[in-house]
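In response to the reviewer comment on reproducibility (Comment 2.3), we provide here a single inverse folding case reported in full, input and output, so that an independent group could reproduce the run without further information from us. The structure tokens appear first.
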């Protein structure tokens, strides 16, 4: 039991075990390289060169398919040999060497436009040239260095394909397990929210927010791996559908629980805006018994999410499942206030989503203990599976940017200018180790797209370097000149570097600098002045990167975020329009892919706004505005995903039918999204956001005796209404004018 819990915690904290696998693979490649080179009796500088080359050859290759990885690794060896050769040949020619280094940096960054392989080869070329400077490669020593590179790449291949293998199917399986565990953790957080008192409510709500965000993160990771990790397109779409269902029902359940705690319906923004107040608990008589039953059923739902082996018996598990699925039938709802009954309905929908997810991932289940409600749920799931379209639509064409407008070209020019400044400044600080400034300048441009991102990344690298210098002093004094003890510590630090890299760039920089202190010790070049120089060169390189980004073809953070905001609004419009059209009786479209595009666009925007929301930013008001806008967009995305999921149920769900009157409601939403996007793209735009009657009133019919809402469920109406209200709310922080309601 303890082992299972530990496995679940590791799986949840590291979805797909991506960080663990990356760290182990790199450490194994380095250790194997050191072992082989040690048996061959090479010198310590060559051991250092081999260790760094093995590390680069391992982490640089990022393709998903093993065959593509093998080709890229094979191409990387001649690139590394050429780079090492030029580094040795130009080591005595200062001006020629500097010019070539700048040209190499430009080509390495420009190579990003050719995809992952171009990025990898550019990274290998740059890093191996850096290795040649670090170990002082000479022309006479090239034959030995060629052998070292060959051993490093072979050991990297052995670690990747034999010792720590990773297949797309295996990775997807681990991501599915992480999704299951994170879903169970979210249900646990919702349980704590249900029981939280006045002093605990803020912390409980924070846990629910974090759990919802982590579940969504895992869902996006699964969607990015489906095509490579599943046997066919139909299986991929089935898993995608079931993951989306589980995510949406879990998030909706959290909102229903918030509503059940109070006498008013909770605003969706509460789950998306950090610091938003939670609804106060409603202590009216008669609620305690109903909430106790909700608590019991949430525990049962969590049990369903966990693997069946966690239950006492399969029969007991089936009884729990039958009871929860029975809440989808109105006759089976326990007596309770309306808001609490909504929670029971939400638990029933969540149980159905868990059942569908388990069938999609684990295959057919035992049906011998099914109740009538469970049998109906299975029939609905089977009908949905039957209509899933495995066909692919042709993707839309995008405008191809040319010249300096192309991001890769602009970044290559910027980093070339910044590196030139770093070389000049670095030479003044040290004629021997000027390349540290160039390395920092290069690194701050990786995976950044605006001046603000580069500034924040440079700041984090400097902080990590300063702390790493202190650690390097301590470790270097501890190991002295014990070569293999130092290498063992380097392996530990390398693993920590890769394990923490996605979590904290500052931590990664700390471990890198601490490891470099040990390598300096091995090369007999360690001193306090060297480590202080490392800090100075890092600060210089970061400053040069910021200067180049700010004055050479600059991409302002505001401009970058505005472009991404427009993209999010366009994707939101596509999802909403397609979902409303399908709910109105239009032809089916690929809603899941559109929803995934919206999620990815929102993730890109969230990443781009980090410089604006960083704790060091002096503009507090703008930071709060950015957080508020992102929270509103997350709320819009939630309702759009829910509409898309409901629209896809139309062919199979008996309680949902198309209603043409929804087109009127969807028309206003589309016009408002377009108005906001137009104003963000051009502040001189005269477009206005329209307000007016509620969505419910737009569905009124002029024919006497016609049902008000037809067979459109209250849930659909609520999502459309909330989306309409949130868009109007989005206009205020973005300074979009709002037109007076039409009379």
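Designed residues, in position order:
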């Amino acid at each position: 039991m303890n082992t299972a819990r530990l496995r679940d915690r590791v799986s949840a904290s590291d979805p797909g075990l991506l960080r663990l696998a990356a760290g182990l693979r790199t450490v194994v490649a380095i250790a194997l390289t050191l072992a082989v080179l040690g048996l061959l009796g090479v010198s310590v500088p060559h051991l250092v060169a081999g260790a760094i080359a093995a590390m680069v050859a391992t982490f640089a290759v990022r393709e998903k398919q093993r065959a593509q990885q093998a080709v890229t690794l094979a191409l990387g060896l001649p690139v590394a040999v050429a780079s090492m050769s030029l580094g040795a040949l130009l080591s005595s020619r200062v001006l020629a060497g500097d010019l070539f280094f700048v040209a190499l940096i430009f080509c390495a960054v420009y190579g990003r436009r050719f995809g992952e392989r171009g990025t990898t080869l550019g990274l290998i070329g740059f890093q191996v040239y850096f290795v040649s400077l670090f170990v002082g490669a000479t022309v006479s020593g090239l034959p030995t260095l060629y052998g070292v590179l060959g051993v490093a790449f072979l050991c990297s291949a052995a670690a990747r394909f034999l010792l720590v293998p990773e297949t797309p199917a295996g990775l997807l399986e681990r991501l599915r397990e992480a999704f299951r565990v994170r879903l169970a953790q979210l249900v646990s957080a919702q349980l704590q929210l249900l029981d939280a008192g006045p002093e605990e409510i803020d912390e409980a709500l924070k846990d629910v927010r974090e759990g919802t965000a982590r579940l969504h993160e895992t869902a996006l990771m699964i969607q990015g791996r489906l095509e490579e990790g599943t046997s066919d397109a139909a299986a991929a779409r089935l898993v995608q559908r079931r993951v989306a269902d589980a995510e949406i029902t879990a998030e909706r359940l959290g909102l229903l629980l918030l509503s059940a705690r109070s006498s008013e319906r909770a605003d969706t923004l509460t789950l998306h805006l950090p610091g938003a107040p939670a609804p106060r608990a409603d202590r009216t008589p008669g609620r305690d018994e109903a909430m106790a039953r909700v608590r019991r059923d949430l525990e049962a739902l969590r049990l369903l999410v966990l693997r069946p082996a966690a239950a006492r018996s399969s029969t007991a598990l089936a009884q729990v499942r039958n009871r929860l699925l029975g809440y989808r039938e109105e006759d089976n709802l326990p007596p309770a206030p309306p808001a609490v009954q909504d929670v029971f309905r939400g638990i029933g929908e969540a149980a159905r989503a868990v059942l569908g997810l388990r069938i999609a991932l684990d295959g057919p289940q035992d049906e011998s203990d099914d109740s009538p409600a469970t049998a109906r749920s299975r029939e609905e799931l089977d009908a949905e599976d039957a209509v899933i379209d495995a066909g692919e639509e042709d993707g839309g064409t995008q405008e191809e940017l040319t010249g300096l407008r192309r991001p890769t070209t602009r970044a290559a020019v910027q980093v070339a200018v910044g590196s030139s400044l770093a070389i000049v400044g670095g030479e003044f600080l040290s004629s021997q180790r000027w390349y540290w400034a160039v390395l920092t300048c290069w690194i701050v441009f990786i995976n950044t797209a605006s001046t603000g991102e580069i500034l924040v990344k440079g700041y984090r690298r400097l902080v990590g370097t300063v702390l790493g210098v202190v650690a390097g002093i301590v470790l270097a004094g501890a190991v002295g000149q014990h070569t293999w003890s130092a290498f063992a510590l380097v392996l530990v630090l390398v693993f920590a570097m890769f394990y923490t890299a996605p979590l904290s760039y500052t931590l990664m920089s700390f471990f890198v600098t601490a490891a470099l202190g040990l390598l300096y010790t091995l090369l007999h070049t360690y001193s306090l002045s060297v480590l202080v120089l490392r800090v100075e060169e890092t600060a210089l390189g970061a400053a040069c990167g910021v200067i180049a980004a700010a004055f050479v073809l600059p991409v302002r953070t505001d401009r970058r975020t505005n472009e991404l905001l427009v993209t999010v609004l366009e994707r939101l419009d596509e999802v909403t329009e397609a979902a409303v059209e399908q709910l109105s009786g239009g032809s089916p479209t690929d809603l899941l892919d559109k929803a995934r595009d919206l999620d990815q666009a929102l993730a890109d925007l969230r990443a781009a706004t980090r410089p604006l929301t960083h704790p060091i930013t002096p503009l507090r008001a703008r930071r709060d505005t950015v957080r508020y806008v992102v929270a509103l967009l997350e709320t819009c995305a939630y309702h759009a995903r829910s509409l898309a999921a409901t629209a896809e149920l139309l062919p199979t769900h008996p309680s949902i039918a198309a209603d043409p009157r929804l087109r009127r409601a969807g028309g206003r939403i589309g016009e408002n999204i377009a108005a906001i996007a137009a104003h963000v793209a051009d502040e001189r735009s005269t477009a206005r956001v329209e307000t007016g009657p509620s969505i419910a009133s737009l569905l009124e019919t002029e024919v006497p005796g016609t049902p008000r809402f037809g067979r459109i469920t209250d849930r659909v109406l609520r999502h459309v209404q909330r989306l309409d209200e949130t868009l109007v709310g989005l206009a205020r922080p973005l300074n979009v004018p709002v037109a007076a309601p039409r009379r």
